[in-house]
Write a structure and sequence with these properties.
The chain is an alpha+beta fold and 230 residues long. The protein folds into two domains: 131 residues, Impact, N-terminal domain (Ribosomal Protein S5, domain 2), CATH 3.30.230.30; 83 residues, Alpha-Beta Plaits (2-Layer Sandwich), CATH 3.30.70. The protein contains five helices and ten strands; from the N terminus they run βββαββαβαβαββαβ. β2 and β3 form a beta hairpin. α2 runs parallel beside α3. The radius of gyration is 23 Å and the shape is elongated.
Length: 230
Amino acid sequence: MPGTATPPVAYTTLARAASHELEVKRSRFIAYLVRTDTEEAARGVVAGLRKQHHDARHHCSAFVLGPDRAVQRSNDDGEPSGTAGAPMLEALAKRQTPSGAADLSDITAVVVRYFGGVLLGAGGLVRAYSQAVSTALDSARLVQRRRMALFGIEVDHAAAGRLENDLRSDGTTLLETFYGPDRATLRVALPDGPDTAADFGARLATLTGGVCSAEPDGTQWVDTGFGVRP
């Protein structure tokens, strides 16, 4: 349809959970970043931290979910409207990643506040909650998540090992190899795109002298590039 957005083929998310504590005028702001891929999981993270920090005054949250980042929610949890959840969400949604874009997703941020007795005012709260999330992101390890096209390749047992080596040398991601009674099946993954099947079919024909062909086996989101910092 005209005007329909092209679905994303990659985005950035957390490699592992991260946290950071910030103190502002005796109030403690403890930011937690957790990888989540559903609203249920995101709300579960908030509930878990609310229980863990049951003596804190506020448990503010924000999350961005989905490859297209279509789900974005925030909650002030008792702070003045717009002073906590919204700036936290903005810190997530506008964060530029090593991909060169603001594409951070499948991430939940919770900032637990222990009130220190000094009122910060609306501007002070916005800065504190935003900074807590941004600083936690500074030290977080990120990973690119890419939609990959999967293929199955049947090959004789005797030729399977050599084809595995040739595919790896050719830059193809080999997922696994199944050895059946008569033949082996190699499962591979390549970055998804309109020409992936045709291009890979031609490369495979060259590698095997036309003996093997690739059977499409759907798509799958796969993590790549672990350990990248924002």
